[in-house]
Design goal:
alpha/beta; 5-stranded mixed sheet; 14% strand
Length: 289
C-alpha cells in the first residue's frame, strides 16, 4: 500500500526546503565576497613569492654550492629520518569535497613516507582528523579569516628553528592551491631544505654586496616565511571558492526540489477537488433515485 503525502505534509516540506534554500543562498553570497577578497590577496602575493624565489635561485647558482651548503643550514640536505608536515585545512565544513581531498592526500603521504612524521596544523579540520589517528601532533596554530603576514610568522619561526636544530630533516606543506573558482589542487610542497632550479649562472654576471653566503642567510628565512604565508592565502582562497560552489549547488538543488514538491502539491489538490466533486455527484445521483 502506497500512502501519498497530504497537502499539509507537502506544504510543510516546501516551506522547510525553501527555508534551507534561503540559508544556503545567504551562505553562497558570504562565501563569494570572502572568495573575491582571498583571490585578490593570492594574486597580490604571487609576484613577490616568485621574485624572491628567482632571486634565491640566482644567488645560489652564482657561487660554489658546497661553500653555500656548509654555511646556510636552510639549504642543507641530509638523510631524512624525521619529517615535519604543515597541514593547512579549513576551520569549518560545508566546502564540498575539499576537506576530504586534503585528508586523503595526507593519508597517501603518510603511507608512502619512510620516515617518522610529525604534524603542525592550521585549521580545526586537520586538527580533528589527526586527533582521531595515531599521528604525532607537534603543534597547532589558528589564523583569522583575513590572514596577515604577522599571523604566520610564528608558524614559520617554529619550522625554521626546528630544522636548523636538526629536530627534523625535511619540512613539507600540504594545502589546497587555488587554481580557479571551480578547481582547487591539493599540493604537498617541500619547504625545507629549500630547493631551487639548477642553472648555469656565472658569478661574473652579478656583483653581490654583501657576499653570497651573507645574502643567502638573509634571503632564505624570508623565503620560508613567505612560502608559509602564501600557502595559507592559497588555502583560504580554495576554501571560500569550494564553499561558494557547494552552497550554489545546494541552493539550485533545493529550488529544483521545491519545484517538484509544488507539482506534487498541485496534483494532490487536484485529486482532492476531483474526489470531492465525485462525492457530490454521487450524492445527487443517490437523491434522484
Amino acid at each position: 500500500v502506497v500512502f501519498l503525502p497530504s497537502t499539509k505534509d507537502l506544504r510543510d516540506r516546501i516551506r522547510s526546503v525553501s527555508n534551507t534554500a534561503k540559508v544556503t543562498g545567504a551562505m553562497q553570497m558570504i562565501a563569494a565576497s570572502k572568495m573575491t577578497r582571498a583571490q585578490n590577496m593570492v594574486a597580490n602575493s604571487r609576484p613577490y613569492f616568485e621574485t624572491i624565489h628567482n632571486m634565491l635561485t640566482k644567488v645560489k647558482n652564482s657561487s660554489n654550492n658546497q661553500e653555500i651548503l656548509n654555511n646556510v643550514k636552510l639549504l642543507q640536505s641530509r638523510d631524512v629520518s624525521k619529517t615535519l608536515v604543515l597541514f593547512i585545512t579549513p576551520d569549518r565544513g560545508l566546502a564540498g569535497a575539499l576537506v576530504g581531498n586534503l585528508t586523503k592526500a595526507v593519508g597517501e603521504f603518510i603511507s608512502k613516507s619512510e620516515s617518522d612524521i610529525s604534524f603542525i596544523t592550521v585549521g580545526k579540520k586537520g586538527d580533528r582528523y589527526l586527533s582521531r589517528s595515531t599521528q604525532n601532533l607537534f603543534g597547532n596554530f589558528a589564523v583569522s579569516d583575513r590572514p596577515t603576514f604577522s599571523e604566520t610568522l610564528e608558524i614559520s619561526k617554529t619550522i625554521i628553528e626546528n630544522y636548523e636544530n636538526e629536530n627534523f630533516d625535511k619540512v613539507v606543506i600540504v594545502y589546497a592551491k587555488f587554481i580557479n573558482t571551480a578547481v582547487q589542487k591539493i599540493q604537498a610542497h617541500q619547504v625545507l631544505p629549500i630547493e631551487t632550479e639548477s642553472g648555469n649562472e656565472n658569478s661574473n654576471d652579478y656583483i653581490f654586496e654583501p657576499e653570497v653566503v651573507s645574502l643567502l642567510k638573509s634571503i632564505a628565512p624570508k623565503y620560508v616565511q613567505n612560502q608559509v604565508f602564501h600557502s595559507v592565502l592559497e588555502a583560504f582562497a580554495s576554501e571560500h571558492s569550494a564553499r561558494m560552489v557547494a552552497m550554489q549547488n545546494a541552493t539550485d538543488n533545493a529550488n529544483e526540489l521545491v519545484e517538484g514538491l509544488t507539482l506534487d502539491l498541485n496534483k494532490a489538490r487536484q485529486e482532492s477537488i476531483t474526489g470531492e466533486l465525485l462525492d457530490i455527484v454521487g450524492g445527487v445521483a443517490a437523491l434522484e433515485k
